[in-house]
Design brief:
This protein has about 250 residues and is of the alpha/beta class. It has a single domain, classed as NAD(P)-binding Rossmann-like Domain (Rossmann fold), CATH 3.40.50.720. It has nine helices and seven strands. The radius of gyration is 17 Å and the shape is globular.
């Protein structure tokens, strides 16, 4: 029986790389994000590796849409949904706390924290019914250490860090494992989104050192999902070799 993995934010970066890695592991894939055209292209790319890919446009901030999306999945998919990767998220802007835009704050809190809660609450009953499952939350080094002008983004990731621990406790009786991965600087579309399409500002973030790439995080997911059932990876902090903390880099 095919096992299914539900990956949020699969239209780029970590999510797309994780989809590719899990296709190789034989998972059926449930891939969501807001940009459906990206998901259509990804499905075509992965078709040879996984014939079983379900895609859908989904904004994780929309609770009703999240519930409806999970509800409409075929019964055999719901019965075999064994992995959830809560990856969708973003940083919007980088500004001192008194100068941040309320709309940026809301977007980050609603996607990174509240959206993760909506998706988890929709999926967990399916795992509980089988007393088996694995949830991987993508947090960040920003959730371990705040950095200047990172304020609200850091706070959302710190919240998810704590939430991961709480979820693990609440889901222990049901055999559901909960992991987190906290990456440092990785070159994806993350900075382009943070700086609202300013390519110069985005590329400057990664100048002078070799950042992580999306496959580095997909490799970590692959490691977690291939552990035997008695092993639970609680938290992986993965940094570029040139990054020693949220703010300390060794640059050329
Ligand atoms: P990308 O910008 O490349 O990918 C982000 C993904 O999240 C996209 O697929 C985007 O899809 C999706 N997304 C954003 N908002 C929403 C939403 N409201 N509803 C549904 N999907 C949404 O960045 P990364 O791959 O780097 O980021 C993935 C995760 O990793 C994020 O949670 C990020 O905070 C975290 N992270 C990133 C690091 C980095 O340095 N790159 C380091 C540590 C953590 P779409 O726009 O199509 O909806
Ligand atoms: C993304 C990494 O350090 O830019 O979470 O916040 S950082």
């Amino acid at each position: 029986m095919v096992k299914y993995a539900f990956i949020t934010g699969a239209s780029s970066g970590f999510g797309a790389a994780i989809a590719s890695s899990l296709a190789k592991e034989g998972y059926g894939l449930i891939l969501t994000a807001r940009r459906l055209d990206r998901l259509v292209a990804l499905k075509e790319t992965l078709a040879e590796e996984s014939p079983d890919i379900i895609i859908g446009a989904l904004d994780v901030r929309d609770c009703l849409a999240v519930d409806a999306w999970v509800e409409q999945l075929d019964d055999h998919v719901k019965a075999n949904l064994s992995l959830l990767v809560n990856n969708a998220g973003l940083a919007a802007g980088r500004a001192p706390i008194d100068q941040g835009l309320v709309s940026d704050w809301e977007q980050m809190i609603d996607a990174n924290l509240t959206g993760l809660l909506y998706v988890s609450q929709a999926v967990i009953p399916l795992m509980k019914a089988r007393e088996e499952g694995l949830i991987i939350n993508i947090t960040s080094i920003a959730g371990k250490e705040a950095y200047p002008q990172g304020n609200v983004y850091c706070a959302t990731k710190a919240a998810v860090d704590q939430l991961t621990k709480g979820m693990r406790m609440d889901l222990l009786p049901f055999g559901i494992r909960v992991s987190s991965i906290a990456p440092g600087a990785a070159e994806t579309e993350f900075s382009l989104v943070r700086f609202k399409g300013d390519e110069d500002q985005a590329s400057a973030v990664y100048q002078g050192f070799t950042p992580l790439d999306a496959k580095d995080i997909a490799d970590a997911v692959q490691f977690i999902v291939t552990r035997p059932p008695h092993v639970s990876i609680h938290d992986l902090v993965i940094m570029p070799s040139a990054q020693a903390s949220a703010t300390l880099f060794r640059k050329d």
